[in-house]
Amino acid sequence: MRRPPTIIDVASYAGVSKSSVSNVLQGKRTVDETIRKRVLDAIDELGYRPNAGARYMRQRSKVLGVVVDDLTNPFHAELATYIEAYAAKRMHSILLVVTGSQLEHQSSRVRSLVEHRVAAMMFLSAPGKKALELVGPEIRKVFVGIRMAKELSIAVDDSAGTSLAVEHLAALGHKKIGFVSAMLGNDPNVEAARFKGYQHGMRVAGLGVEEAHLLREVGARNSEPSPNYQEILKQFLGRRNRPTALVAALDRVALEIISAADALGIRIPESLSLVGFDDITIASHSRIALTTIAQPMKDLARLVVDAAIDGPSAVAGGKPPASIFLPPRLVVRRSTAQAPTKR
Amino acid sequence: MRRPPTIIDVASYAGVSKSSVSNVLQGKRTVDETIRKRVLDAIDELGYRPNAGARYMRQRSKVLGVVVDDLTNPFHAELATYIEAYAAKRMHSILLVVTGSQLEHQSSRVRSLVEHRVAAMMFLSAPGKKALELVGPEIRKVFVGIRMAKELSIAVDDSAGTSLAVEHLAALGHKKIGFVSAMLGNDPNVEAARFKGYQHGMRVAGLGVEEAHLLREVGARNSEPSPNYQEILKQFLGRRNRPTALVAALDRVALEIISAADALGIRIPESLSLVGFDDITIASHSRIALTTIAQPMKDLARLVVDAAIDGPSAVAGGKPPASIFLPPRLVVRRSTAQAPTKR
DNA sequence: TTGTATGCGTTATCAT
DNA sequence: ATGATAACGCATACAA
């Protein structure tokens, strides 16, 4: 048989009408047990699989769109994995588009999603305005790990996370605590929130924020570490009055800091403490052993999928769109230690 | 307007028949320029997007299925990114399913792909027999980075890769070169091919393969490193007569070896040289600096997508299904060094 | 060149 | 409880 069997083939094979087959497929209770069995056997015999495309012409699609700028980002890859897993549990499929850094390409990929009439779109990275306008109000939008004004965002409490980081460092006796976020693609709002948490943490600890301890110039969004990022970092770390501890806006940045520090002979944690953010898998490797702020990825995934399928009200109690923030968790490893004693 | 506009809405708005709209959409040259413009304007005005599901009932689907067991595996994530990018360039979308380690779940995810009538399925991980049988002959199957008998497989030349690794180590004066592959999920055939390349490399170098220098017990497939994997590794590395150099079947295994060696105080590369396989992103980090065998991921992605869209004959000259193997590349970093002088 | 009619596989409505 | 039939949105063969 060249082409896959249709519901009609099943019906005629089972000697019933296609309506009955459909009823069996839909799990309707009104169908007689003997007929149900005949249909089930026919399906099995013919290897029939319902055509999802045809089905979605009459029913709500069970496909969820995921848009991410860079799957190579371990945090995104891990989050996407959890999302797919939970979506599958809820009988939904994932149409994945990765947009890369080019804005036009982004629109084209998002357009593809709307043409597929996905039930909802989940954004792991902030889309451009153009791309966002494409999607229209009939398709549900949920933002994960990033913040989008006027839209439902589900994320870790970024500010609380960096506050936690500062608190941890302050408890270790650090006074000169810096913050670096530059040039590694992430949502600007997220960066801002994490910086805010850092500021807040400093205030609570009774510490002052010095401009010289900050590295925040924002480069191209959604981009790989630029070749000269290491140089910038080295210059920052090479300063006479450099911080004794650093809060990195993401683990990826922390990884770069480690490289720069190594190159400069600055020992971590002996003479520089470092806290990351995200707790990507490699952070736990013995060579890295990064103290970091872990995101509750499974909860994030569950909530975002629920919101995508059931609507915002299913996860947000009040009047959506309201954002919901989950608590972060400090994971202490070996990149942080007691502040060096004053020389 | 509650529901998205259809081709009929566009037609009536433009004052033409739906056929003309369709013709414009299909890029037919036969349509009058003035009508084409009217249609295009109407589309723009209404924000019309063709319904892909409905379209695919008459045309070949432009959705490609990707099945992977674990997106957390950096090699898979990177490969998937390239695949999506090239598929997009060819105007196709990616329906992604991640199967995890459970076999039944695997079938369910693959079933979902066939119900969506994807144009082709691309396997980044070896599926179980059950899952494979589900998919039937009308859906094209391509295997990437793994080997499947009787099917089109596109992969790096695994044997050549590990041979390269051995050659590199032998050139550095190593005699006792081991091979470890145990317990980190991968296709058994791939493991076998890489081991074969190791053996061949040893033979060419005039070196003998000793059983004691091998760690190949295969644990659960498709699984995360088990908790006691470190223990096994430490025991292996702690032996009196351990190899002075190791070929790891994948970078992920190499990462584990590094941890174990560190824990034992075995210095890399001074007293143990190590070569990985895949060249995942983290391998280039200064703390890891892993000498490894790089796969031509972009070429892999391009070929597999072409094969998925155009059929096996588009990439394989002869009579498909034939497998095609791409040459690997040795990337030398700092995990390999001259063999320690005999004591 | 443009419009009309039909089919694609499924669900949903409505008689029976 | 079951079956006939009308949508669903689009492409295509054919007629005009």
Are there runs of chain A of 5+ residues with pLDDT below 50, and where? none
CATH superfamily of the largest domain in chain A, by name, is Response regulator
Form type of chain A: elongated
The quaternary organization reads as: homodimer
Q: Give the N-terminus to C-terminus distance of chain A in angstroms.
A: 83 Å
CATH fold-level label of the largest domain in chain A: Rossmann fold
Given the helix and strand composition of chain A, which structural class is it?
alpha/beta
Pfam families (chains A, B): LacI, Peripla_BP_3
Organism (chains A, B): Mesorhizobium hungaricum
GO molecular function (chains A, B): DNA-binding transcription factor activity; transcription cis-regulatory region binding
Domain HTH lacI-type (chains A, B): 5-59
Model description:
- Chains A, B: It comes from Mesorhizobium hungaricum.
- Chains A, B: Residues 5-59 form the HTH lacI-type domain.
- Chains A, B: InterPro entries: HTH_LacI (IPR000843), LacI/GalR-like_sensor (IPR046335), Lambda_DNA-bd_dom_sf (IPR010982), Peripla_BP_I (IPR028082).
- Chains A, B: This is HTH lacI-type domain-containing protein.
- The structure is a homodimer of 343-residue chains.
- The N and C termini of chain A lie far apart (83 Å).
- Chain A is elongated and about 90 Å long.
- The model of chain A has no long low-confidence stretch (mean pLDDT 92).
- By secondary structure, the first copy, chain A, is α/β, with parallel strands linked by helices.
- In chain A, helix 7 (129-134) links the parallel strand 3 (120-123) and strand 4.
- The first copy, chain A, contains 12 helices and 12 strands.
- Chain A has 3 domains: 7-58, lambda repressor-like DNA-binding domains (434 Repressor (Amino-terminal Domain)), CATH 1.10.260.40; 60-156 and 298-326, Response regulator (Rossmann fold); 158-296, Rossmann fold (3-Layer(aba) Sandwich), CATH 3.40.50.2300.
- In chain A, helix 10 (229-238) packs across helix 11 (251-264).
- In chain A, the strands form 2 sheets. The first copy, chain A, has a 6-stranded parallel beta sheet with strand order 2-1-3-4-5-11, sandwiched between helices. The first copy, chain A, has a 6-stranded mixed beta sheet with strand order 7-6-8-9-10-12, sandwiched between helices.
- Chains A and B meet through helix 4, helix 5, strand 2, helix 6 and helix 11 of A and helix 4, helix 5, strand 2, helix 6 and helix 11 of B.
- Strand 2 (93-98) of chain A pairs antiparallel with strand 2 (93-98) of chain B, so a sheet runs across the interface.
- The structure holds a DNA duplex (16 and 16 nucleotides).
